[in-house]
Structures are given as C-alpha cells and as structure tokens.
C-alpha cells in the first residue's frame, strides 16, 4: 500500500512548504543589511591592515592602523551620503536606473579621486585651527583622530535619518571641536569659521536661484511655445553647450590640481571654447533625434535624458577630485605626524590614503547609497529630465561663480538647494496660475486646505535637511571635543 500523501494531505504539505518559503524570504530580507555591513567591515579591516603593513616598524603604528580604519569608515559614509547629490536627480528623473547610477558614480568618483585629486590638502581643514597652538605631535594626532571619528559618526547618523549633509562641513566641525579641546578657543580661526557659516545660507540659495532661473527659461522658451520641437532644436543645443562650458570650467578649476594649476580666468576661457564647440556638434544631433517627435512635453524629456546622464557623471568626477581629499585630510595629517614626528599646515596625501578614500566611497555608494539617492531624486519634489538637468547645471555654474567671487560654498548644499529651488519655483508658478484662474468667474476656486495639499515640496524633508545642515558643524565639533578628551585621558 502506497504511503504517498493524498487529498487534503497535499494541501497541508503545500501550506507548510509555503510557510517555510516565507520564513526563508523574511530571513533573506532581514539579513540583507547585515551583508552590506559585513562587506563594509571587511573593507575597514583591510584598510587597517594596509596601515599596519606600511607602518609596521614605527613606534606608533597602532595609531596609524586605527586612523586608516576610521578613514575607510569615513569614506564609506561619504559614498552613502554625499554622492547621492550628484546621482539623485538623474535617478529621480528616470534618466538612469539605480544600478546604472551607482556604477557610473563609482567609476567616476574613483577616477576623479585617483587621477585628478589634489596632491596637497590642508590637514587643518583650510586654516580652521593654528598648528602653533597645539602642544606636540601626539596631541595633534589625537586631535585629528577625534576629528576623523566624529565627522564619520555624524555623516553616518545623517545618512540614517535621511539627510544629505556636507562632509566637508563635518570635517571642519570635527577639526574645530578637537582644536578647541586641545588648545582653547584662541586656536580657532574665527573669521574663516564665519565664512563657512555664511556658506550655509549662500550655497543653497545660490544653487536654488540658478536652478529655478534655468527652469523658468526652459518653460518660457520651449515648453510654452506653440511649436515645442522647433523651440527645442534651437534651445537644447544652447543649454547643452552652457552645461559643457560650465563643467569644463569647473573641472579645470577644481579637478585638475594635480596636473596643472589653472586660475579662474583661464578656466572660464576653457569653458567658453569647449561650450561653443559642443554647441556646434550638438545642433545636428538634436535635430536628428527630434525628427518625427510629437509636439508635446513627453518628447522634450527624451532630448534632455542623455545630457543629464553626462552631467551626473561629470559631477561625480569633479566631486571625487575635489572632496575626497578633504575627507581623508585628517588621515593624511595623522600619517604625516606619525612618519616624521611633526605637523604642518599642509602635507602630500600618500597614494594608499587616496586609494582608501576612492574605494571606500565606491563601497559606501554601492552598499548604502540608494537611500539618499531616492531622497534627493524623488522624495523632496518630483523631478523630470528637464528639472534634473537644471539642478545639475546649477551645481556646476554656482561652484564656478562662488570660486570667482571667493565665497566658501558646499557642493552638497548647492545640489540639494537646486532641488529645492526647482520645487519651490514650480509651487510659485502653480500659485500664480491659480490666482489667474481665480479671476475667471467660470473657474471653480480651490479651498485653502486643497491648495496646501498640493504643495510640491515636502515640508517634512525640507525641515529635516535644513536642521541637519545647521547643526552639522556644532554637532561634529561637540562630538570631536568629547572624543579628543576621551582619547587623551585613555592614553595618558
């Protein structure tokens, strides 16, 4: 007689197997963050081992080992938080998939850091503290270690709550807090700190204003024209040329420090020449691409897709060239002090330190970046290729303008400010249209509650991000001071 299950027994067996499958799916879902954390920890251990191998014969090799580990931790957090500003708009506009964005950003960030990264970095974050006020090399090492740990912890916390913050400002706050704890308030360069505090306001307002201005231009010159395709054939090559010129100037000014020093005037000339060249090349390409397109806004979005991808890649390259050095600056300072027994205002960044920065950013972006990419790209306000293009263009132009004027700005604040600028401009434009419609007696008026519901920028995200920006320097400074005092007490 057969023992095979029959009738309801099959149904019971299927139900049990389905429950087991659900448990397996749930286990895999829960374990996914653990896998990312495990990979990140493995990279941190490898970085620490690299420091130990390179400085195995020095008396304070253990310090370098720990510093390398925290440098890798910082780089991972930069990848998780800072890079989202470059890729978020392109992903939110659906010009890039999440996987494509992560791949392009990882390649471009690493290339920017390793090929064009600054070979000299101010180890005290651009004159925040006076090295003469620090007692000795050991005190300086503990101060830089505290700055590195505190800035990494703050960026990690900001990523966890979903707030894109400036990693450079985090490092500045960390260095300031450790400097105050080590040498008192007199060691801090307060005029420089005042300029950095001013950038909290200048960066997002400039970025938002430029992005909104370009979106207004696109609406007037292309979207609201009777023949949208003909208008696009005329204006899209001009906008792409402006983008190419802005990025050429940006990269010449910020991304080629290791190769050649270029002053702002020369950078603008380079941008003008390349911008004109791209305009000439792009005109026939846009004309061919637009042939047969319907006269509607959906067609226009396709024309902005490829330029948006290129702009995101160039932003990532420039970010890798410019910001990675700032992030690994404290690590470079510790390595220099450990190797030579002294400290200086600026030192050369060893290649292995830049490698930790470059690959750490790539790992952080791959493992933890999607959260902030979604926040910047789709959760603040709705983006399409035209709006996202305005954000990317604003980031490049604002950095060039600020460099020319000598204003300290944050690329993070500019990019996110551009997203806010686009969203608030759309709100203002919608309100103006509603007011015009209200003058028409045949149009039904909207209730105040309905008008509030139609806000195009999420106020909760706006307030969270602005609050995180405001407290970045004080929070990192306080954490750094406490960590410095703890390290000093433990060692002594």
From TrEMBL:
Membrane topology: Multi-pass membrane protein
Keyword Nucleotide-binding: no
Residue ranges crossing the lipid bilayer per the database entry: 34-55, 62-80, 140-163, 170-190, 196-220, 232-253, 259-281, 302-321, 349-368, 388-405, 411-428, 462-487
Pfam family, one: PHO4
Subcellular location: Membrane
Record-linked InterPro entries: Phos_transporter
Principal subcellular localization: membrane
Origin: domain of life: Bacteria
Keyword Lipid biosynthesis among record annotations: no
Keywords assigned: Membrane, Phosphate transport, Transmembrane, Transmembrane helix, Transport
Family: Belongs to the inorganic phosphate transporter (PiT) (TC 2.A.20) family.
Protein's UniProt name: Phosphate transporter
Protein's organism: Sedimentitalea xiamensis
Taxonomic placement: Bacteria, Pseudomonadati, Pseudomonadota, Alphaproteobacteria, Rhodobacterales
